[in-house]
Amino acid sequence: MDKGIQEAKKEVERDNFSDEIKLQLEEKGHLTSDIENAISTYSKKVKFNKRSFESKEVKRIFWKELFDRIGYGFSSQQFINILFFQTGASYFVIGAINGLRVILSVLITSFLGEYSKIRKISKRFIGTTGILFGLCFIFMAIARLFHSVPLFALALLIGSIGAVSYGDLYQSIFRNALKKERIHFLRNIAQYGLIITGISIIIASLLMDKFPATGTPVSLFGLEFRIFGYLIAFEIAAISFIVSGYVLSFIKEKQIKIIEKRSPLTQLKIQLESLKDSLPVFIKNKAIVVLVIASIITGFVQTLGNSYYGIYIYETFKYSYFGGFMNVGIVFLIAILTSFFAPFIVKQNSKEYGKFPMLVFGTLLMAIMPLTYYYNPNLVSISMGTLLGVIGAAITGVAHGLLTADLMSEKERKVYFSEYSFLIIIPYLIIMPIGAYAAQAYGLRTLFLLLGLILTLIVVPLYFLIIILHKKRKRFK
Q1: Is 140 helix (H, G, I), strand (E, B) or coil?
Q2: C-beta of residue 230 within 8 angstroms of C-beta of residue 213
Q3: Helical H segments across 119-148, by residue range
Q4: Which of 203, 381, 391, 450 is most enclosed, with most CB atoms within 10 A?
Q5: Which residue has the higher pLDDT, 31 or 317?
Q6: What CATH architecture does domain 263-477 belong to?
Q7: What is the pLDDT of residues 15-63, one digit of tens each?
Protein backbone atom coordinates (compact mmCIF):
# COMPACT_ATOMS: atom_id res chain seq x y z
CA MET A 1 0.00 0.00 0.00
CA ASP A 2 2.81 2.43 0.89
CA LYS A 3 4.48 1.73 -2.39
CA GLY A 4 1.23 2.43 -4.26
CA ILE A 5 0.79 5.70 -2.38
CA GLN A 6 4.29 6.83 -3.25
CA GLU A 7 3.78 6.02 -6.95
CA ALA A 8 0.48 7.88 -6.96
CA LYS A 9 2.08 10.91 -5.35
CA LYS A 10 4.85 10.90 -7.96
CA GLU A 11 2.25 10.68 -10.72
CA VAL A 12 0.45 13.64 -9.25
CA GLU A 13 3.59 15.73 -9.02
CA ARG A 14 4.61 14.80 -12.52
CA ASP A 15 1.30 15.65 -14.11
CA ASN A 16 0.54 18.95 -12.41
CA PHE A 17 -2.48 18.29 -10.22
CA SER A 18 -3.91 21.28 -8.42
CA ASP A 19 -2.13 22.58 -5.33
CA GLU A 20 -5.16 21.70 -3.20
CA ILE A 21 -4.97 17.98 -4.03
CA LYS A 22 -1.20 18.00 -3.52
CA LEU A 23 -1.73 19.49 -0.05
CA GLN A 24 -4.25 16.79 0.82
CA LEU A 25 -1.80 14.10 -0.19
CA GLU A 26 0.92 15.59 1.96
CA GLU A 27 -1.37 15.89 5.01
CA LYS A 28 -2.75 12.32 4.86
CA GLY A 29 -0.61 9.31 5.67
CA HIS A 30 -2.90 7.04 3.69
CA LEU A 31 -5.37 7.24 0.82
CA THR A 32 -8.98 6.20 0.86
CA SER A 33 -9.93 3.62 -1.74
CA ASP A 34 -11.92 6.21 -3.72
CA ILE A 35 -8.97 8.59 -4.06
CA GLU A 36 -6.63 5.72 -4.87
CA ASN A 37 -8.94 4.44 -7.59
CA ALA A 38 -9.37 7.94 -9.00
CA ILE A 39 -5.62 8.51 -9.26
CA SER A 40 -5.12 5.02 -10.72
CA THR A 41 -7.72 5.78 -13.41
CA TYR A 42 -6.11 9.13 -14.12
CA SER A 43 -2.66 7.52 -14.37
CA LYS A 44 -3.91 4.99 -16.92
CA LYS A 45 -5.56 7.77 -18.89
CA VAL A 46 -2.32 9.77 -18.95
CA LYS A 47 -0.38 6.74 -20.18
CA PHE A 48 -2.99 6.14 -22.88
CA ASN A 49 -2.76 9.77 -23.96
CA LYS A 50 1.04 9.51 -24.12
CA ARG A 51 0.79 6.42 -26.31
CA SER A 52 -1.76 8.19 -28.47
CA PHE A 53 0.52 11.22 -28.75
CA GLU A 54 3.50 9.06 -29.70
CA SER A 55 1.35 7.35 -32.31
CA LYS A 56 0.54 10.76 -33.82
CA GLU A 57 4.23 11.70 -33.79
CA VAL A 58 5.08 8.47 -35.62
CA LYS A 59 2.44 9.20 -38.26
CA ARG A 60 3.68 12.76 -38.73
CA ILE A 61 7.30 11.70 -39.08
CA PHE A 62 6.22 8.90 -41.40
CA TRP A 63 4.49 11.36 -43.73
CA LYS A 64 7.40 13.75 -43.56
CA GLU A 65 9.85 10.97 -44.41
CA LEU A 66 7.60 9.85 -47.27
CA PHE A 67 7.47 13.30 -48.87
CA ASP A 68 11.20 13.77 -48.35
CA ARG A 69 12.02 10.50 -50.10
CA ILE A 70 9.75 11.36 -53.02
CA GLY A 71 11.38 14.78 -53.27
CA TYR A 72 14.91 13.37 -53.24
CA GLY A 73 13.99 10.85 -55.93
CA PHE A 74 12.48 13.39 -58.30
CA SER A 75 15.40 15.80 -57.77
CA SER A 76 18.36 13.41 -57.95
CA GLN A 77 21.70 15.25 -57.96
CA GLN A 78 22.63 13.48 -61.20
CA PHE A 79 19.49 14.84 -62.89
CA ILE A 80 20.32 18.32 -61.60
CA ASN A 81 23.83 18.14 -63.09
CA ILE A 82 22.49 16.97 -66.46
CA LEU A 83 19.93 19.78 -66.59
CA PHE A 84 22.61 22.26 -65.51
CA PHE A 85 24.73 21.07 -68.46
CA GLN A 86 21.73 21.32 -70.82
CA THR A 87 21.11 24.87 -69.60
CA GLY A 88 24.48 25.83 -71.09
CA ALA A 89 26.93 25.43 -68.20
CA SER A 90 30.43 24.26 -69.10
CA TYR A 91 32.18 21.38 -67.36
CA PHE A 92 34.30 23.90 -65.50
CA VAL A 93 31.26 25.81 -64.18
CA ILE A 94 29.50 22.59 -63.13
CA GLY A 95 32.54 21.32 -61.23
CA ALA A 96 33.27 24.69 -59.61
CA ILE A 97 29.66 25.22 -58.50
CA ASN A 98 29.45 21.70 -57.07
CA GLY A 99 32.68 22.32 -55.17
CA LEU A 100 31.32 25.60 -53.82
CA ARG A 101 28.10 23.81 -52.89
CA VAL A 102 30.07 21.32 -50.79
CA ILE A 103 32.01 24.10 -49.07
CA LEU A 104 28.80 25.95 -48.21
CA SER A 105 27.21 22.74 -46.95
CA VAL A 106 30.20 22.01 -44.71
CA LEU A 107 30.21 25.55 -43.32
CA ILE A 108 26.47 25.57 -42.63
CA THR A 109 26.56 22.09 -41.06
CA SER A 110 29.44 23.00 -38.74
CA PHE A 111 27.95 26.36 -37.80
CA LEU A 112 24.43 25.07 -37.09
CA GLY A 113 25.79 22.11 -35.14
CA GLU A 114 27.68 24.40 -32.77
CA TYR A 115 25.05 27.14 -32.68
CA SER A 116 22.25 24.72 -31.77
CA LYS A 117 24.21 23.69 -28.67
CA ILE A 118 23.85 27.16 -27.16
CA ARG A 119 20.60 28.38 -28.61
CA LYS A 120 17.40 26.68 -29.64
CA ILE A 121 16.60 26.73 -33.37
CA SER A 122 12.85 26.78 -33.89
CA LYS A 123 10.80 24.35 -35.95
CA ARG A 124 9.48 27.30 -37.91
CA PHE A 125 12.99 28.10 -39.11
CA ILE A 126 13.64 24.46 -40.03
CA GLY A 127 10.31 24.17 -41.83
CA THR A 128 11.01 27.42 -43.68
CA THR A 129 14.35 26.10 -44.93
CA GLY A 130 12.51 23.02 -46.21
CA ILE A 131 10.06 25.22 -48.12
CA LEU A 132 12.98 27.29 -49.47
CA PHE A 133 14.68 24.07 -50.54
CA GLY A 134 11.55 23.06 -52.43
CA LEU A 135 11.14 26.44 -54.16
CA CYS A 136 14.73 26.26 -55.44
CA PHE A 137 13.75 23.37 -57.72
CA ILE A 138 11.10 25.52 -59.35
CA PHE A 139 13.73 28.19 -60.00
CA MET A 140 16.08 25.53 -61.44
CA ALA A 141 13.32 24.43 -63.81
CA ILE A 142 12.68 28.05 -64.84
CA ALA A 143 16.43 28.55 -65.36
CA ARG A 144 16.54 25.45 -67.58
CA LEU A 145 13.54 26.70 -69.55
CA PHE A 146 15.20 30.07 -70.28
CA HIS A 147 18.78 28.73 -70.47
CA SER A 148 19.91 30.96 -67.60
CA VAL A 149 23.14 29.51 -66.17
CA PRO A 150 23.49 32.19 -63.42
CA LEU A 151 19.93 31.58 -62.15
CA PHE A 152 20.44 27.81 -62.15
CA ALA A 153 23.74 28.15 -60.27
CA LEU A 154 22.20 30.51 -57.71
CA ALA A 155 19.19 28.23 -57.16
CA LEU A 156 21.53 25.24 -56.78
CA LEU A 157 23.67 26.99 -54.16
CA ILE A 158 20.70 28.32 -52.17
CA GLY A 159 19.05 24.91 -52.41
CA SER A 160 22.13 23.20 -50.98
CA ILE A 161 22.13 25.59 -48.03
CA GLY A 162 18.43 24.91 -47.48
CA ALA A 163 18.97 21.15 -47.78
CA VAL A 164 21.70 21.10 -45.14
CA SER A 165 19.80 23.35 -42.73
CA TYR A 166 16.62 21.38 -43.23
CA GLY A 167 18.18 17.90 -43.07
CA ASP A 168 20.64 18.33 -40.19
CA LEU A 169 18.32 20.28 -37.91
CA TYR A 170 15.45 17.88 -38.56
CA GLN A 171 17.62 14.94 -37.48
CA SER A 172 18.03 16.51 -34.03
CA ILE A 173 14.24 16.79 -33.71
CA PHE A 174 13.86 13.26 -35.03
CA ARG A 175 16.15 11.88 -32.29
CA ASN A 176 14.50 13.85 -29.50
CA ALA A 177 10.83 13.64 -30.48
CA LEU A 178 10.23 9.96 -29.79
CA LYS A 179 11.26 7.21 -27.47
CA LYS A 180 14.01 4.78 -28.46
CA GLU A 181 11.65 1.97 -29.40
CA ARG A 182 9.75 4.30 -31.71
CA ILE A 183 12.99 5.51 -33.31
CA HIS A 184 13.90 1.88 -34.03
CA PHE A 185 10.56 1.49 -35.80
CA LEU A 186 11.16 4.66 -37.82
CA ARG A 187 14.59 3.45 -38.87
CA ASN A 188 12.81 0.61 -40.61
CA ILE A 189 10.67 3.21 -42.35
CA ALA A 190 13.88 4.91 -43.50
CA GLN A 191 14.97 1.62 -45.09
CA TYR A 192 11.71 1.43 -46.99
CA GLY A 193 12.33 5.07 -47.88
CA LEU A 194 15.20 3.92 -50.11
CA ILE A 195 12.69 1.94 -52.16
CA ILE A 196 10.43 4.99 -52.43
CA THR A 197 13.39 7.10 -53.57
CA GLY A 198 14.31 4.45 -56.14
CA ILE A 199 10.76 4.32 -57.52
CA SER A 200 10.67 8.12 -57.67
CA ILE A 201 13.96 8.18 -59.64
CA ILE A 202 12.53 5.75 -62.22
CA ILE A 203 9.28 7.75 -62.57
CA ALA A 204 11.26 10.99 -62.95
CA SER A 205 13.45 9.31 -65.61
CA LEU A 206 10.34 8.18 -67.53
CA LEU A 207 8.85 11.67 -67.38
CA MET A 208 12.00 13.39 -68.62
CA ASP A 209 12.47 10.88 -71.47
CA LYS A 210 8.79 10.90 -72.44
CA PHE A 211 8.61 14.70 -72.44
CA PRO A 212 12.11 15.86 -73.47
CA ALA A 213 13.71 19.26 -72.91
CA THR A 214 12.50 20.53 -76.31
CA GLY A 215 8.94 20.14 -75.08
CA THR A 216 6.20 17.82 -76.24
CA PRO A 217 3.28 19.63 -77.96
CA VAL A 218 -0.11 18.78 -76.44
CA SER A 219 -3.60 19.93 -77.40
CA LEU A 220 -6.23 20.26 -74.68
CA PHE A 221 -9.64 21.94 -75.07
CA GLY A 222 -8.42 23.54 -78.26
CA LEU A 223 -5.35 25.02 -76.57
CA GLU A 224 -1.84 24.19 -77.74
CA PHE A 225 0.98 24.05 -75.22
CA ARG A 226 4.19 22.14 -74.52
CA ILE A 227 4.95 19.73 -71.68
CA PHE A 228 8.44 19.51 -70.23
CA GLY A 229 9.31 16.39 -68.23
CA TYR A 230 11.94 18.09 -66.07
CA LEU A 231 9.43 20.79 -65.16
CA ILE A 232 6.92 18.17 -63.94
CA ALA A 233 9.61 16.25 -62.02
CA PHE A 234 10.99 19.33 -60.28
CA GLU A 235 7.50 20.61 -59.46
CA ILE A 236 6.75 17.26 -57.78
CA ALA A 237 10.03 17.57 -55.86
CA ALA A 238 9.23 21.15 -54.86
CA ILE A 239 5.70 20.28 -53.68
CA SER A 240 7.03 17.27 -51.73
CA PHE A 241 9.60 19.33 -49.82
CA ILE A 242 7.14 22.17 -49.19
CA VAL A 243 4.55 19.74 -47.79
CA SER A 244 7.28 18.02 -45.77
CA GLY A 245 8.34 21.35 -44.26
CA TYR A 246 4.70 22.05 -43.39
CA VAL A 247 4.26 18.64 -41.69
CA LEU A 248 7.41 19.30 -39.68
CA SER A 249 5.73 22.24 -37.97
CA PHE A 250 3.34 19.79 -36.22
CA ILE A 251 6.08 17.56 -34.78
CA LYS A 252 6.71 18.23 -31.11
CA GLU A 253 10.31 19.09 -30.30
CA LYS A 254 12.20 18.64 -27.09
CA GLN A 255 12.60 21.81 -25.10
CA ILE A 256 16.26 22.80 -25.13
CA LYS A 257 17.52 25.16 -22.50
CA ILE A 258 19.26 28.22 -23.89
CA ILE A 259 22.76 28.24 -22.47
CA GLU A 260 23.88 31.56 -23.82
CA LYS A 261 22.53 34.08 -26.27
CA ARG A 262 24.98 34.78 -29.08
CA SER A 263 24.59 36.33 -32.47
CA PRO A 264 25.48 34.13 -35.47
CA LEU A 265 28.47 36.40 -36.20
CA THR A 266 29.78 35.99 -32.65
CA GLN A 267 29.38 32.22 -32.89
CA LEU A 268 31.34 32.14 -36.16
CA LYS A 269 34.12 34.22 -34.60
CA ILE A 270 34.30 31.82 -31.64
CA GLN A 271 34.56 28.82 -33.98
CA LEU A 272 37.41 30.42 -35.96
CA GLU A 273 39.27 31.20 -32.73
CA SER A 274 38.73 27.62 -31.60
CA LEU A 275 40.20 26.38 -34.89
CA LYS A 276 43.27 28.58 -34.38
CA ASP A 277 43.78 27.19 -30.87
CA SER A 278 43.25 23.61 -32.04
CA LEU A 279 45.72 23.59 -34.94
CA PRO A 280 48.70 22.65 -32.70
CA VAL A 281 46.81 19.47 -31.72
CA PHE A 282 46.73 18.39 -35.38
CA ILE A 283 50.29 19.41 -36.18
CA LYS A 284 51.67 17.59 -33.14
CA ASN A 285 50.38 14.22 -34.37
CA LYS A 286 51.69 13.64 -37.92
CA ALA A 287 49.43 10.64 -38.45
CA ILE A 288 46.39 12.90 -37.98
CA VAL A 289 47.79 15.41 -40.49
CA VAL A 290 48.22 12.64 -43.07
CA LEU A 291 44.72 11.31 -42.32
CA VAL A 292 43.25 14.78 -42.88
CA ILE A 293 45.09 15.09 -46.21
CA ALA A 294 43.89 11.63 -47.32
CA SER A 295 40.30 12.45 -46.31
CA ILE A 296 40.35 15.76 -48.19
CA ILE A 297 41.66 14.09 -51.38
CA THR A 298 39.06 11.29 -51.10
CA GLY A 299 36.26 13.81 -50.64
CA PHE A 300 37.55 15.80 -53.61
CA VAL A 301 37.49 12.71 -55.84
CA GLN A 302 33.94 11.83 -54.76
CA THR A 303 32.64 15.38 -55.23
CA LEU A 304 34.22 15.87 -58.64
CA GLY A 305 33.21 12.42 -59.87
CA ASN A 306 29.59 12.86 -58.75
CA SER A 307 29.49 16.17 -60.64
CA TYR A 308 30.03 14.38 -63.97
CA TYR A 309 29.01 10.70 -63.74
CA GLY A 310 25.38 11.38 -64.65
CA ILE A 311 26.31 13.75 -67.48
CA TYR A 312 28.69 11.19 -68.99
CA ILE A 313 26.12 8.37 -68.86
CA TYR A 314 23.44 10.58 -70.38
CA GLU A 315 25.58 11.95 -73.21
CA THR A 316 27.25 8.62 -74.06
CA PHE A 317 24.20 6.33 -74.02
CA LYS A 318 21.24 8.65 -74.68
CA TYR A 319 20.38 6.81 -77.93
CA SER A 320 21.02 3.28 -76.64
CA TYR A 321 20.04 0.88 -73.87
CA PHE A 322 17.04 2.34 -71.97
CA GLY A 323 17.36 5.90 -73.27
CA GLY A 324 18.76 9.17 -71.88
CA PHE A 325 17.58 9.79 -68.32
CA MET A 326 16.47 6.20 -67.78
CA ASN A 327 20.06 4.96 -68.19
CA VAL A 328 21.13 7.36 -65.44
CA GLY A 329 18.17 6.34 -63.28
CA ILE A 330 18.97 2.62 -63.61
CA VAL A 331 22.65 3.04 -62.70
CA PHE A 332 21.97 5.11 -59.62
CA LEU A 333 18.99 2.98 -58.63
CA ILE A 334 21.51 0.15 -58.28
CA ALA A 335 23.63 2.44 -56.10
CA ILE A 336 20.63 3.19 -53.86
CA LEU A 337 19.68 -0.47 -53.50
CA THR A 338 23.30 -1.26 -52.59
CA SER A 339 22.69 0.77 -49.43
CA PHE A 340 20.57 -2.14 -48.15
CA PHE A 341 23.41 -4.63 -47.85
CA ALA A 342 26.51 -2.35 -47.74
CA PRO A 343 26.35 -1.92 -43.92
CA PHE A 344 26.22 -5.73 -43.49
CA ILE A 345 29.30 -6.18 -45.69
CA VAL A 346 31.17 -3.48 -43.78
CA LYS A 347 30.28 -4.95 -40.40
CA GLN A 348 31.37 -8.48 -41.29
CA ASN A 349 34.62 -7.51 -42.98
CA SER A 350 35.73 -4.94 -40.38
CA LYS A 351 35.63 -7.68 -37.72
CA GLU A 352 37.51 -10.11 -39.94
CA TYR A 353 40.28 -7.95 -41.40
CA GLY A 354 40.72 -4.88 -39.20
CA LYS A 355 40.72 -1.12 -39.74
CA PHE A 356 43.79 -0.45 -41.90
CA PRO A 357 43.23 -3.26 -44.44
CA MET A 358 39.55 -2.29 -44.74
CA LEU A 359 40.49 1.34 -45.33
CA VAL A 360 42.83 0.37 -48.17
CA PHE A 361 40.39 -2.16 -49.60
CA GLY A 362 37.49 0.34 -49.48
CA THR A 363 39.57 3.00 -51.23
CA LEU A 364 40.55 0.58 -54.01
CA LEU A 365 36.88 -0.34 -54.50
CA MET A 366 36.07 3.36 -54.78
CA ALA A 367 38.79 3.71 -57.45
CA ILE A 368 37.11 1.01 -59.57
CA MET A 369 34.14 3.29 -60.19
CA PRO A 370 35.87 6.13 -62.12
CA LEU A 371 38.32 3.69 -63.77
CA THR A 372 35.37 1.71 -65.18
CA TYR A 373 34.10 4.87 -66.90
CA TYR A 374 37.49 5.16 -68.62
CA TYR A 375 38.46 1.56 -69.48
CA ASN A 376 35.13 -0.14 -70.14
CA PRO A 377 32.41 2.43 -70.80
CA ASN A 378 29.30 0.30 -71.27
CA LEU A 379 26.20 0.48 -69.11
CA VAL A 380 26.61 -2.95 -67.47
CA SER A 381 30.24 -2.33 -66.47
CA ILE A 382 29.43 1.17 -65.23
CA SER A 383 26.54 -0.20 -63.15
CA MET A 384 28.81 -2.81 -61.53
CA GLY A 385 31.54 -0.21 -61.01
CA THR A 386 29.04 2.09 -59.33
CA LEU A 387 27.87 -0.74 -57.06
CA LEU A 388 31.46 -1.48 -56.00
CA GLY A 389 32.16 2.21 -55.53
CA VAL A 390 29.20 2.62 -53.17
CA ILE A 391 30.30 -0.40 -51.12
CA GLY A 392 33.85 0.96 -51.07
CA ALA A 393 32.66 4.35 -49.83
CA ALA A 394 30.69 2.67 -47.03
CA ILE A 395 33.71 0.56 -46.02
CA THR A 396 36.02 3.58 -46.07
CA GLY A 397 33.62 5.64 -43.98
CA VAL A 398 33.32 3.01 -41.24
CA ALA A 399 37.04 2.20 -41.25
CA HIS A 400 37.87 5.91 -41.06
CA GLY A 401 35.71 6.28 -37.96
CA LEU A 402 37.32 3.27 -36.30
CA LEU A 403 40.78 4.49 -37.23
CA THR A 404 40.32 7.83 -35.50
CA ALA A 405 39.66 5.99 -32.25
CA ASP A 406 42.96 4.16 -32.71
CA LEU A 407 45.06 7.14 -33.74
CA MET A 408 43.79 9.84 -31.42
CA SER A 409 43.16 10.51 -27.79
CA GLU A 410 39.69 11.57 -26.68
CA LYS A 411 40.75 15.23 -26.73
CA GLU A 412 42.23 14.89 -30.23
CA ARG A 413 39.07 13.18 -31.52
CA LYS A 414 36.88 16.01 -30.23
CA VAL A 415 39.09 18.55 -31.95
CA TYR A 416 39.23 16.48 -35.14
CA PHE A 417 35.48 16.07 -35.56
CA SER A 418 34.62 19.63 -34.49
CA GLU A 419 37.25 21.40 -36.60
CA TYR A 420 37.66 19.10 -39.61
CA SER A 421 34.95 20.94 -41.54
CA PHE A 422 36.89 24.20 -41.40
CA LEU A 423 40.16 22.49 -42.32
CA ILE A 424 38.89 21.35 -45.73
CA ILE A 425 37.65 24.76 -46.92
CA ILE A 426 40.92 26.26 -48.20
CA PRO A 427 42.11 23.03 -49.91
CA TYR A 428 38.72 22.68 -51.61
CA LEU A 429 38.83 26.27 -52.83
CA ILE A 430 42.12 25.43 -54.56
CA ILE A 431 41.73 21.86 -55.85
CA MET A 432 38.08 21.90 -56.98
CA PRO A 433 38.64 24.58 -59.67
CA ILE A 434 41.76 22.67 -60.80
CA GLY A 435 39.72 19.48 -61.15
CA ALA A 436 36.93 21.33 -62.96
CA TYR A 437 39.49 22.83 -65.35
CA ALA A 438 40.87 19.34 -66.06
CA ALA A 439 37.35 18.20 -67.00
CA GLN A 440 36.94 21.18 -69.31
CA ALA A 441 40.39 20.91 -70.91
CA TYR A 442 40.86 17.14 -71.26
CA GLY A 443 37.34 15.70 -71.26
CA LEU A 444 35.43 13.53 -68.82
CA ARG A 445 37.03 10.16 -69.60
CA THR A 446 40.51 11.54 -68.94
CA LEU A 447 39.23 13.10 -65.73
CA PHE A 448 37.82 9.76 -64.56
CA LEU A 449 41.20 8.12 -65.23
CA LEU A 450 42.91 10.83 -63.15
CA LEU A 451 40.42 10.36 -60.28
CA GLY A 452 41.00 6.61 -60.20
CA LEU A 453 44.77 7.06 -60.25
CA ILE A 454 44.62 9.66 -57.48
CA LEU A 455 42.87 7.16 -55.20
CA THR A 456 45.19 4.26 -56.00
CA LEU A 457 48.54 6.08 -56.30
CA ILE A 458 48.13 8.88 -53.74
CA VAL A 459 45.45 8.05 -51.16
CA VAL A 460 46.34 4.37 -50.65
CA PRO A 461 50.08 5.13 -50.05
CA LEU A 462 49.01 7.84 -47.59
CA TYR A 463 47.17 5.18 -45.55
CA PHE A 464 50.30 3.04 -45.47
CA LEU A 465 52.22 6.12 -44.30
CA ILE A 466 49.68 6.52 -41.48
CA ILE A 467 50.42 2.95 -40.36
CA ILE A 468 54.16 3.68 -40.26
CA LEU A 469 53.72 6.97 -38.37
CA HIS A 470 51.29 5.41 -35.92
CA LYS A 471 53.59 2.49 -35.10
CA LYS A 472 56.54 4.86 -34.75
CA ARG A 473 54.58 7.09 -32.39
CA LYS A 474 53.50 4.12 -30.24
CA ARG A 475 57.08 2.90 -30.04
CA PHE A 476 58.33 6.23 -28.66
CA LYS A 477 55.53 6.63 -26.11
Answers
A1: helix
A2: yes
A3: 123-145
A4: 391
A5: 317
A6: Up-down Bundle (1.20)
A7: 444 444 444 444 444 444 444 454 455 454 444 444 444 567 677 777 8
**Was domain 56-261 assigned CATH 1.20.1250.20?**
yes
CA distance 379 to 290: 36
Distances (CA, A) of 3 to 7, 10, 28, 30: 6, 11, 15, 11
CATH 1.20.1250.20 segments of the chain: 56-261, 263-477
348-370 core/surface letters (b: 16 or more CB in 10 A; e: else): ebbeeeebbebbbbbbbbbbbbb
With beta carbons less than 8 A apart as the criterion, state whether 152 and 143 touch.
Answer: yes
Strands, E, within 202-328: which ranges? 216-220, 223-227
Q: How far is CA 178 from CA 182, 360, 456, in A?
A: 6, 39, 44
Q: How would you class 74 by CB atoms within 10 Å of its CB: exposed for 0-12, middle for 13-18, buried for 19 or more?
A: buried
| 431, amino acid identity | I
pLDDT of 274 higher than 60: yes
Longest dimension (CA), the chain: 88
Note the pLDDT tens digit of each residue in 409-433: 776 676 677 667 777 888 889 999 9
- CA–CA separation, 176 and 252 (whole Å): 9
